[in-house]
Amino acid sequence: MSDALLSVRGLRSGYGPVEVLRGIDLDIAPGEIVALLGSNGAGKTTFNQTVSALLPARAGSICFDGRDITRAHYREVVARGLIHVPEGRRIFPNLSVLENLVLGAFARGRAQRAVNLERVFDIFPRLRERTAQVAGTLSGGEQQMLAIGRGLMGEPRLLILDEPSLGLSPRLVEELFGLIARLHAQGLAILLVEQNVAQSLEIAQRACVMENGAIRFSGTGAELLASDRLRQAYLGV
């Protein structure tokens, strides 16, 4: 895809002697939402960490907005607008809600910090009510709001959401997916990495299914759901 915002080719990565990613190709266009699906251990989180420069690539290339970032430092990756909201939220539990949000603008978005803070509070009114509260005392759903809000403070051009619905109640999951759809409607490109297959396919323009460190299938949600074998073997629906 020549006009891709993110273009990954032949990506290999892993931990120590273990190779997890085995030649991943993936494109995301500006403003597109793509779901990356697969079971535990498929390599989804490793892919996120490698693209975000938290884990070094062993082979292949990663281009963002036409620039090669394969060997870039993670600060440079963030500064370019590729923002990763990791699995497990990873907020700073001993800092306040406001302090967590302000830290989201450390590498990118400082000039518009006040404007972006208001935007986050408009999206998550509960965070406005809890600015002075210690983040570790928030509920699980509120902590996920804080993690996403902190990511938005960095003015992302591509937002990677790694298992955002993990551990949330069904009602909060519905709210979360509605929020993701609204962010996408505002023009934000999103890579949604999820095990909640049905709801991911409802909002994603395209979806890719990973297995054993490789992408086995890709297409629209309708195309993936139309295959009985694919549904039963890979999607669990």
From TrEMBL:
What the entry lists under Gene3D superfamilies is as follows:
P-loop containing nucleotide triphosphate hydrolases (3.40.50.300)
Name a Pfam family for this protein: ABC_tran
Q: Which UniProt keywords apply?
A: Amino-acid transport, ATP-binding, Cell membrane, Membrane, Nucleotide-binding, Transport
Q: Which SUPFAM superfamilies match?
A: P-loop containing nucleoside triphosphate hydrolases
Taxonomically, the superkingdom here is Bacteria
Q: Name one GO biological process term.
A: L-amino acid transport
| Sequence ranges assigned to domain ABC transporter in this UniProt record | 6-237
Gene Ontology molecular function: any one:
ATP binding
Instruction: Tell me which family the UniProt entry assigns to this protein.
Output: Belongs to the ABC transporter superfamily.
Q: What is this protein's name?
A: ABC transporter ATP-binding protein
